[in-house]
């Protein structure tokens, strides 16, 4: 079913405030991490031709668009989020012709493709950066170059401009002997931050974006786009430069302070996003822009996604995926459901008039939500809780994002040894926290990695139960770049595609609902029983059409809390169960007893 044939939300129904309603307001986007999706040339890495061979599977699932994580030319220091040529495809994924072919074949299926735009930083191997190392070149001011701290010998420990630490370990400042100065890298030292204060930088980015849109891509997911405006003072100084107190006082347990407060949602962000909108998207139709919104509050999300302000269509927010981390990624704790409910409700509340929400629990940076918040103790509970989490997310107002493998209930990797990991964030964090700062011991850090390493969501897609799960051929020389999860025999697409009670079929049902039911896509959200620690309940409504969503998000039976029980007092009509992860009569028997079994979930028309 193509977007053209699919019914869009009628214009008399309010979505984000735009008229007509955007195509994506009742669409579902599928994120592909190309390196792990499908290998077609038996080198152990996924590629573009592999993706093309799986379009029929995605069409069966019913998704409307693909978010393609980076496939541009890259040294692969951060798996492609370090781009050395924005206008070429990295040979490991294929060629520009392969990209053109993928675009035309996806469009033939009615599936749009949005590319991953990584422009807060480039690779240090990008021609722009290499030219910038000459302080007399026209590119000299394209990055954040700063001299050594006053009174310090350049290149010696402690001579960095301030105490900021890189997200992937070490100082956020790397000394370049050729230029004799340091450059800022919020992430790895091979990812120098671009200087967006420089209009030449901005226009080079816009030119590249137009080049891709003219080539047929349907929009962009914008990597850490809310970091592009840095907080500098009138002299252009970054906070803490010259070793200013602000940086030294705030050094955390690993010996560094964070650069993030000085770039998240910076002073010129709205200006840059509005300029990008004018220079790139004015006059274009049918596209989608979704920004990664670190540091963006639900209220700022409403402002940025309000079509009135002509910035972005939507953003990925982070409050909800941080509720169990207390700001410390490696010390993730047991989920307290009321905290998740509160974070989601705040995001929904903020967009009840204008603006829009993205809906996600999974992506290539997050551990698998099923392992993190579901129940994988038995196959039955794994399937049931996978469906419950999917229903919980997809019944909110906004555009859902399905991350590859989520639709078949894939789980965390189950790695036990450091050498099994590939993600530079995980490996560097291990060494910095265990060997250098000594703030965590090895065993505890291995437990942290098993729970929250990004590699947990990057193991190869599990297509079937063959040696490498159908991700690559049986030929032993093609060991996948990251080990296949051992549970591929029991969790794979082949086993589920045509089974009506599978996780795959449940996702398909949820996607069909969003396409066909305007209350699911655009109905107003109202939270219920927000303090209950087991039941996640809310209503969605347009006029007198009301849906009640109830999920027992726990591994034990739970009583219906007051508000939810009241709305279900007379619920005995199976024909009004819109969707459930159990037999509809059975789940109504649970409702009649006012007690939902572990992970039971339903949507009831009230
Ligand atoms: O992610 C930025 C980001 O917020 C995460 O990397 C986060 O900082 C990290 O996972 C904390 O655990 C984007 C991309 O999604 C990510 O894959 C890249 O590594 C990063 O930017 C740099 O481009």
From TrEMBL:
Transmembrane segments: none annotated. Residues 31-458 form the Glycosyl hydrolase family 13 catalytic domain. Pfam families: Alpha-amylase (PF00128). One of its GO terms (biological process) is oligosaccharide catabolic process. CDD domains: AmyAc_SI_OligoGlu_DGase. Keywords: Glycosidase, Hydrolase. Signal peptide: none annotated. GO terms for molecular function: alpha-amylase activity. It comes from the Bacteria. Belongs to the glycosyl hydrolase 13 family. NCBIfam families: PRK10933.1. This is Alpha-glucosidase.
